Amino acid sequence: MENIQLNVQTRTGKGKGYAGRLRREGKVPGVFYGPGTGAAALCVDAREFRTKLAGLEGSHLIQLLSPLPEFNDKVVLLKEIQRHPVTSELIHIDFYEVDVTKPLQTTVPLHFIGKPQGVTAGGLLQSLRREITVECLPRNIPEFIAVDVSALNIHDTIHIDELTLPEGVKAIYDTNEAVVTVAAPIVEEKPAEAVEEAAAPAEGAAAEGAAAPAGGEKK
Question: What is the residue-wise DSSP string for the chain?
Fold first, then answer.
């Protein structure tokens, strides 16, 4: 995995008013922290962040660039991104420092590949999990995990322990849950009123047939 480089600056102000001024200037407030490291306040250029990171999926290593040695060349993961609930404007960013020589745990998205045999037979592909937790060295974090579903028939499932993971990557889980399945097609039942209406002409025809012999005896 290649590092994404991102310029950061320190910030000294606090409070909503100061954070609002930063955003109006095109910057996003953030915090930098890690194991045994106290939190440090910083900010990033909003446009640079959107260009380099906003559209990416999964976990990616970021190399911080700064004139200050306490930030420069530090390798981090995005721990949290806060956005405005209406405008989706960037509100705050958390950067978590990682040691590239030590394994860590993070989530990785699942990509389901292929058309299942069960779907061809009328079934419905259902993804039960969109991501899983893995453990590996930071530079071995996969962008995603491909899950080939083409061999699945109706009612077949794939569980976490059946996933094919890259070398050096281990799935972390308490329960071996299913991540995807092919469900049986849904058969719609006719409403009771429709069944009664369909039955009504047959009952009338039977009544007419029963009355016909009586008319013949009077002749």
Answer: -PPEEEEEEE----HHHHHHHHHHTTEEEEEEEETTEEEEEEEEEHHHHIIIIIT--S---EEEE-SSTTTTT-EEEEEEEEE-TTT--EEEEEEEE--TTS-EEEEEEEEEES--HHHHTT-EEEES-SEEEEEE-GGG--S-EEEE-TT--TT-EEEGGG----TT-EEE-SS--EEEEEEPPPPPPPPHHHHHHHHHHHHHHHHHHHHHHHHHHT-
Domains with residue ranges and CATH for the chain? 4-97 (2.40.240.10), 104-183 (2.170.120.20)
Per-residue pLDDT of the chain (219 residues; tens, 9 = 90+): 567 999 999 988 778 888 889 889 999 999 999 887 789 999 999 999 999 987 788 888 999 999 988 899 999 999 889 988 998 888 999 999 999 999 999 999 999 999 999 999 999 999 999 999 999 999 999 999 999 999 999 999 999 999 999 999 999 999 999 999 999 987 766 665 655 555 555 555 544 555 445 555 444
